[in-house]
Amino acid sequence: MTATPKTPAPLRLHGVDHTARPTWRLRETVSFYRDILGLPLVHVISARGWGPATHPDFLHFFFDSGQGSTIAFFYYLGSDEPEALRGRSRMRPLPEDHVFDATHTAWLVESEDELKAWKQKLQDAGLEVSVETRHEVIESIYVRDPNGYFIEFTRKLRPLGEVDAIDAALTLQAAMQAEADAESAGGRMQHIDDVWARKAALLEERLALADGGAEPPVRIFVPRVEEFSSLVQDASGRENCTVVPGEHFDCIVSDGPVEFQRKALGLKPAVWYGLFTGGVSGTIDVLDRDRVRISAARP
């Protein structure tokens, strides 16, 4: 009898082992990560340069970053710091260079009190620390290490759940479709409104929602998560809005223009500017720091 071959188990990754960046400030980097942050130095590789002939001799040193992972740095002997890095350690802890600062490390703390204690510890060490920023599911502070790298300290505001995963998949599906449309027209995707509109169309199709009139209504899809709940509550008390509850998304429907105020919703700017991540069917006429106005989609 021929044995049935075993189906191989699907491959899975088991977490992050380490991240690594270059440094040209050996003493300062060790002082920051070991002495200020308190991360144990657990391993160092010292080696002749190998591979390309231009590869310098180097140190590769690792700090324990918890949960079996490490954060590592390469120190290339005799090499010059790139011009792009010079002076970055003196920059404020703000994402003024969004491309460079997008690459960063976020350290997890367990509570609001811990976050405040870390802010005080960093300030006591002479570092400039950002104000607390409340994102959708985390609250964070930021600082720069001696190399100018962006460092984040963050606490979780709530666990991620099924709604988040469904919302994430729809968002990226909408983004890829919008990007493909832009590329086929010889351009590039420029505005997040295009993603929000495409996502609303995906949800309208999924939920079999019809326009029901010559002029389609404004529809705002809101993921059923805590950080966006004030938008649904506000709309529920308006005569010109109807809230249609759903399993994963509530849908705010209005036949005419609808306007919301950030302060009335009690939202921080970081959440406010992503308020329509669930999708919008309509035209966003105004979206500034404090006010948004949405009207029916223009033909």
- What is the number of beta strands? 15
- β-strand percent reads 25-35%
The average pLDDT is 92
Unreliable runs, pLDDT <50, ≥5 residues? Answer: none
- What's the arrangement of strands in the largest beta sheet? 1-4-3-2
- What is the CATH architecture descriptor of the largest domain? Roll
User: What is the CATH topology assignment of the largest domain?
Assistant: 2,3-Dihydroxybiphenyl 1,2-Dioxygenase, domain 1
Protein name: VOC family protein
InterPro entries: Glyas_Bleomycin-R_OHBP_Dase, Glyas_Fos-R_dOase_dom, GlyoxalaseI/FosfomycinResist, VOC_core, Xdiol_ring_cleave_dOase_1/2
GO molecular function: dioxygenase activity; ferrous iron binding
Cofactor: Fe(2+)
How would you describe this protein?
- The protein is an alpha+beta fold and 299 residues long.
- It folds into 2 domains: 18-156, 2,3-Dihydroxybiphenyl 1,2-Dioxygenase, domain 1 (Roll), CATH 3.10.180.10; 162-295, Alpha-Beta Complex (Phenol Hydroxylase P2 Protein), CATH 3.90.56.
- It contains 8 helices and 15 strands.
- It has helices at residues 26-36, 98-101, 112-124, 162-184, 192-206, 229-236, 262-265, 269-272, and strands at 18-23, 41-47, 58-66, 69-76, 105-109, 133-134, 138-144, 150-156, 218-223, 242-244, 249-254, 258-261, 280-281, 283-287, 291-295.
- The strands form 4 sheets. Strands 1-4-3-2 form a 4-stranded mixed sheet, covered by helices on one side. The protein has a 4-stranded mixed sheet with strand order 5-8-7-6. Strands 10-11-9-13 form a 4-stranded antiparallel sheet, with helices on both faces.
- A hairpin with a 4-residue loop joins strand 10 and strand 11 (249-254).
- The longest helix has 23 residues, at 162-184.
- It is globular, with a radius of gyration of 25 Å.
- The mean pLDDT is 92.
